[in-house]
Amino acid sequence: MTIAHAPEIVENLAAADRELTDGSHLVVDALKLNDVRTIYGLVGIPITDLARIAQASGIRYIGFRHESDAVHAAAAAGFLTKKPGVCLTVSGPGFLNGLVALANATTNCFPVVQISGSSDRHIVDLKRGDYEELDQMTAAERFAKAAYRVDRAEDVGRGIARAIRTAVSGRPGGVYLDIPAAVLGEVIDADKGAKSLWRVVDPAPRQLPAPEAVNRAITLLEGARRPLVVLGKGAAYAQADKQIRQFIESTGLPFLPMSMAKGLLPDDHPQSVAAARSLALREADVVMLVGARLNWLLGHGEAPQWNPDAKFIQVDIQASEFDSNQPIAAPLVGDIGSVIDELTKRNHGRIMAPSRWRNELSARSADNVAKMAQRLSADPHPMQFYGALRAIRDVVHTYPQAYIVNEGANTLDFARNVIDMRVPRHRLDSGTWGIMGIGMGYAIGAAVESGAPVVAIEGDSAFGFSGMELETICRYQLPIVVVVFNNGGVYKGDEVNAGSADPAPTVLMPGARYDLLIEAFGGKGYSVTTPTELTAALGEALASGGPALIDCVIDPSAGTESGHLTNLNPKGLGQN
Ligand code: ADP
Ligand code: TZD
Question: CA 274 to CA 254: how far, in whole Å?
Fold first, then answer.
């Protein structure tokens, strides 16, 4: 006997038989389809299951203690791999915690996608008051390269594709992708879901410069008496290492690496003018900027730091960057690999740096290197920055694949000059904003992406911004050695408050033992007071391959207010 069902019951039975999927699974499937192997994040409502599903699917999930650090880690991954790093946060405050790092990534031109869950639209939009209520997309719009929202599960694939494409094409940057809880939980037919996903083809297509633009640049360089190439972190990011090196070496052009471009050509390369920076900027008559902006880090290209008659060539993927500070006599828009290829192809031996200029720069470099060697060899007690950095430099040289992460004021300025780099994209630091707090996030991103050792050289104040990630470092047993330059303060630790018993604004806890922090999580702590002890501790820590923190006690009176940026403090009637 057959049982006759009402039509709606028949339909329900059929639905139960069909395979189903939901928004969270679709997010994971779309990321996998686009080769995303790691998600950096911090879970909670509504994205905990999403992280579990990702992990179960074979994506590595790295869980953090603060969203900012997770997004910094993803940004480091983006810079190092030329693919967008992906990070995951909860709604409202979790999203906002990540947003600083997303904005920082955008400022640095690093590709990253921040995916945040969000609260119910019908409550948020009428401001009825929801758990972690915030109009996240509108908030992100102002600080990211782009912000998108997925409103239906069937659009998850489109949203992920759009986010990846936007993050990595043209000038890279941070993209925010908003996925409301309702979409993560929306159940749809699995077959329909699978068909809605796609793989982004050629996410950052090559962009070739026009022939006449290339010729214009060659003509300028050919006629230069004192040419200079400035390599920025865009050049490092472009992964055109061989072409850049071949162009520089075949033309004999002197080059100046910006801090995160150090190692693109080795710092001890005979054409590097890092040690003759002031002379090079003041005298150069034709300057070719490659993936470097003429922003505050280059004094906006202004005299007297620069030759007022200098002519600029600029290679950049973003045409609106040209003329932002100085007239650009030869703009070359395109991706750096393609532009350098075209310059090499059309040069036919015309560009040749005059030997007189090269000799002048070499002589100045030699002078300055000798002066630096003297400063580095002094061994004052208590220990000062140079003695400590000399010790680190010598140990790190025996680990050529080690990554350096660096933040602080004096710690950053001195380390940038002392720790020379020999491999491209192995230095990550405070970057364009001069931000504190990138330390542990960048270190974790570099260690996870590369598996290589990381040495994070941190001012004690700078370290405090992300210090809780020591637990993350220990939980995942990452090969990270943190060296805290402990001079007991922001910039320095000897300021006295004349007005009350409270510590002065720049003072931190004297005698703090940062090494004890990592021991709470099972890592290895060291406390050192001399370069010899530092050498031994760093050598042992790197050899062990496990997490370690070296509390490196520096003279509290060492360092200057704001490091090399003292002149940026407003003068006013203040005491300093
Ligand atoms: P630095 O701080 O090292 O001087 P900036 O961050 O100021 O470097 O400059 C990086 C520049 O590189 C940005 O203007 C960005 O648009 C550009 N850029 C990034 N990637 C590429 C690329 N693949 N090709 C060309 N330009 C790029
Ligand atoms: N907050 C953020 C997010 N970024 C900043 N750059 C600052 C505050 C201001 N700031 C600097 O510019 S450097 C610095 C702060 C707080 C710390 C300097 O002290 P340090 O390093 O201990 O890290 P040194 O080597 O002792 O100078």
Answer: 10
The CA angle 357-362-365, to the nearest 5 degrees, is: 130
DSSP notation for 33-63:
HTT--EEEE---TTTHHHHHHHHHTT-EEEE
Q: Quick check: CB of 336 below 6 Å from ligand 1?
A: yes
Q: What are residue 55's DSSP bridge partners? A: none
Determine the distance from the C-alpha atom of residue 388 to the mean position of all C-alpha atoms in its chain, rounded to a whole number.
Answer: 25
What is the enclosing helix (H) or strand (E) of 178?
strand 174-180
Q: What is the pLDDT along the chain (576 residues), one digit of tens a residue?
A: 334 444 444 444 444 556 999 999 999 999 999 999 999 999 999 999 999 999 999 999 999 999 999 999 999 999 999 999 999 999 999 999 999 999 999 999 999 999 999 998 999 999 999 888 999 999 999 999 999 999 999 999 999 999 999 999 999 999 999 999 999 999 999 999 999 999 999 999 999 999 999 999 999 999 999 999 999 999 999 999 999 999 999 999 999 999 999 999 999 999 999 999 999 999 999 999 999 999 999 999 999 999 999 999 999 999 999 999 999 999 999 999 999 999 999 999 999 999 999 999 999 999 999 999 999 999 899 999 999 999 999 999 999 999 999 999 999 999 999 999 999 999 999 999 999 999 999 999 999 999 999 999 999 999 999 999 999 999 999 999 999 999 999 999 999 999 999 999 999 999 999 999 999 999 999 999 999 999 999 999 999 999 999 999 999 999 998 888 988 998 888 765
Distance 436 CA to ligand 2 centre (A): 6
State both tokens at 357: 């200029």
Say whether the peptide bond before residue 46 is cis (omega within 30 degrees of 0).
Answer: yes
> How far is 27 from 179, CA to CA, in rounded Å?
9
- Give ∠ CA 139-145-151 in degrees, rounded to 5: 60
DSSP single-letter state for residue 170: S
Under DSSP, is residue 459 helix (H, G, I), strand (E, B) or coil?
strand
Nearest C-alpha to atom 9 of ligand 1 is from which residue?
A: 292
The Cα 305–Cα 313 span in angstroms is 18
Cis peptide before 7 (omega within 30 of 0): no
Q: Ligand 1 within 6 A of 474 CB?
A: no
What pTM did the predictor assign?
Answer: 0.96
Distance of alpha carbon 147 from alpha carbon 132, whole angstroms: 19
Q: CA quadruple 66, 67, 73, 75: dihedral positive or negative?
A: negative
Mutate to test the pocket of ligand 2, among 71, 386, 414, 436 (most ligand atoms within 8 A of CB): 436
- Which residues, listed in sequence order, are joined to residue 39 by a DSSP beta bridge? 61, 86
DSSP alpha helix (H) spans, 82-135: 93-108, 121-124
